[in-house]
Amino acid sequence: MVGGLGGRARLALTTGLAFLLSACGGGIVPPSSLSRSTPVQSSGPSRTNIPPQRYVPVRQPVAATPIAPMPAISAPGAQTAATAGVTAGPPIASLPITDDQATRALAAFRLSCPSVMRRADTSGLTRGADWQPACAAAASVRPGDARAFFASWFESVQVGDGKAFATGYYEPEIAGSHDRRPGYDVPVYGRPTDLLEADLGLFSDDLKGKKIRGRVDGRAFVPYFDRTAIEQGALANRAPVIAWAADEIEMFFLQIQGSGRLRLPDGSVMRIGYDTQNGRGYTGIGALMKARGLIGAGQTSMQGIVQWLRDHPVEGRDIMRENKSFVFFRELPSAPLGALGLAVTGGVSAAADVKFVPLGAPVFLSLDRTDATGLWVAQDTGGAIKGTNRFDTFWGAGDDARATAGGMGARGTAFLLLPVGTVARLNAGRGVPTP
């Protein structure tokens, strides 16, 4: 959010400070304090029996110079990539794609092929049949030929002005327990039995593609309980508790992320992932805190935001409750899944807006930092990952992933890799000559 990791509206099911401050839908679980040895603290019961969470500083990026976008006619307010307009990008062979990036992206693309050929592309850019030649060829690419594969079967395409913004997310780990016990008293809720989803497109063609979530109250369909009501007990006998977390602040950020790991008292790990959400809009608390002057220039790091919440437990809880969105989880049997229902891969998978990027499509990001520049595959979505050339890069799990995702906020240029002939077909349909 691992979208978000299962659709990151949710897992969303996620992200760096820039993402948090800009009212994002993806996020990371930040370090609990500025000390490497201080036990996790909370506004709840004593956490002295919980292992301390190590402080992992944000990784400082190595600067890079992005490739300049191609000249293009901007279409402000475009609702899909097709209406935003597409421009032929640089030859793929000219892009600085490393052999390792190409090999890893090829593996992810192969995994996505059955979905990309079957799935309706809401971006308006491709049809399922367009992907068949590349997918057939991908099955027999020899080791070492991944770069040549992408150069042969794809063309680079710039959507709109090509100006990209990328954040980062990862699979966080927090302390948790299967059962409620001293120090573990924050419920991790599964899907409520009375939460319903309505496809509005079934009622009106004008509402096609729009869905709402809520519950039945008497004879009325009403919004589902918000975060405050849920934390005050509204879910009693309505939702299963699949686990118990040790810290409400860490659990809040894991909800923003949409998936993660619970480190159990015996040292084992329970993976949880996004199941559904209460249908309420997401509000980024970092943006609120900054606007209200609660955090100053020296407190705008991820650590500073969390430390403020811990130093002001009552006000912090009120701030968190201004984000009415609430995520419900399920236990995952394996690695986190993206919006395609497939495992996402650190350093390869990215979340994107399906109205502007076909899910399963490769994308080359040329950004102002070296670590995020490279070939990615759009395998996830996110509640706040909306609009043209907006991406959320997935970095996997562990300290390195957290250090990178925690400070990820990169700008540059995005080039989608689409089947050869896509630009000519789209522009012919619009009466636009293609060079």
From TrEMBL:
Residues 173-330 form the Lytic transglycosylase MltA domain. Keywords: Cell wall biogenesis/degradation, Lyase. It is an enzyme of class 4 (lyase). Gene3D superfamilies: Barwin-like endoglucanases, RlpA-like domain. GO terms for biological process: cell wall organization; peptidoglycan catabolic process; peptidoglycan turnover. The keyword S-adenosyl-L-methionine does not apply. Signal peptide: none annotated. Residues 33-50 have a biased composition (Polar residues). Its EC number is 4.2.2.n1. GO terms for molecular function: hydrolase activity, hydrolyzing O-glycosyl compounds; peptidoglycan lytic transglycosylase activity. GO terms for cellular component: outer membrane. It catalyses: Exolytic cleavage of the (1->4)-beta-glycosidic linkage between N-acetylmuramic acid (MurNAc) and N-acetylglucosamine (GlcNAc) residues in peptidoglycan, from either the reducing or the non-reducing ends of the peptidoglycan chains, with concomitant formation of a 1,6-anhydrobond in the MurNAc residue. InterPro entries: 3D_dom, MltA, MltA_B, RlpA-like_sf. PANTHER family: MEMBRANE-BOUND LYTIC MUREIN TRANSGLYCOSYLASE A. This is peptidoglycan lytic exotransglycosylase. It comes from Sphingomonas aliaeris.
